[in-house]
Amino acid sequence: MIDNRGYLYPERKENGYENLKTPITVNCCGSKCRFSRDYLRRRPEGRADYQLLYVYNGTGHYLFSDGWRAMNAGSLILYKPGEIQGYCYYAEESPEIYWIHFTGSQIPSLLKHFHICTGMIGRSSTLKNLFDEIISELQLKNLYFSELVNSDFLRLLVLIERTRDHYLHPAHTNLSINRLILHLNQTYMEPWTVASMAVFCGISSDHLAHLFKSATTTSPMRYLNHLRIEKAQELLTVTDLQIQEIAALVGYSDGLYFSRIFKKTTGMAPLIYRKQSGQTICTGC
Length: 285
Prior knowledge:
By secondary structure, this protein is an alpha+beta fold. The chain folds into 2 domains: 167 residues, Jelly Rolls (Sandwich), CATH 2.60.120; 104 residues, Orthogonal Bundle (Arc Repressor Mutant, subunit A), CATH 1.10.10.60. Helix content is 45%, strand content 21%. The strands form 2 sheets. A 6-stranded antiparallel β-sheet has the order 1-2-9-4-7-10, covered by helices on one side. A hairpin with a 2-residue loop joins strand 5 and strand 6. Helix 2 runs antiparallel to helix 3, helix 7 packs across helix 8 and helix 8 crosses helix 9. The longest helix is centred in the middle third of the chain and has 24 residues. The termini are far apart.
């Protein structure tokens, strides 16, 4: 078995550490894989800290108050302080497990905010890599490692919730839509149409419209227009460019059409917006 782990404290306590004087403290983090024999561990009294376990590959078996439960790849297990704990891993099931122990005064509210609980969240290589990063920081203990580990723990909670959302609502998080959104933010000035966006994503225009609305609650062209108007607002504030010039820079060949879209979006004409925003010419930005 490969057992890779890192600790905050040099002295290791079987019961773990509770520290409510700090908002967040990660006590230790590790992984187990390539089991050559079966593995069983019980903690009838639990621990003083919290524990999250993530089954990345294979199957793990976990003890809860109502008995043992098999948890497949993509499962998350949460043990709270004082809860009975038990893990059993069979070599033939090829489990790969990540775990982290943590404590702090903000932990209950954070777990509630990010809906962290036992259940299926789906497999994520991003989550796996973040666990590995935390383990490395705890092993190397470079400058300000504990601050970095605690910030990584917050990222971990966010990624767990995102992973669960992707698993439960795959249509809402289509990767081609994410790729399109990032690309639009860089190329908003180009002559985009719904058809050209669909070609970029490799799907039909109708399918694009459905996926985009599910992911953003708005249509593709409305999103693009809003993005262009945001850029135009900035140019109106920090430059003395003419309206037609700004329109062309953000993707509108027709200055009058740009002005209509701008007023519809912001509630005022471009020149009025420039006056009310207090134009500040920026020559060296």
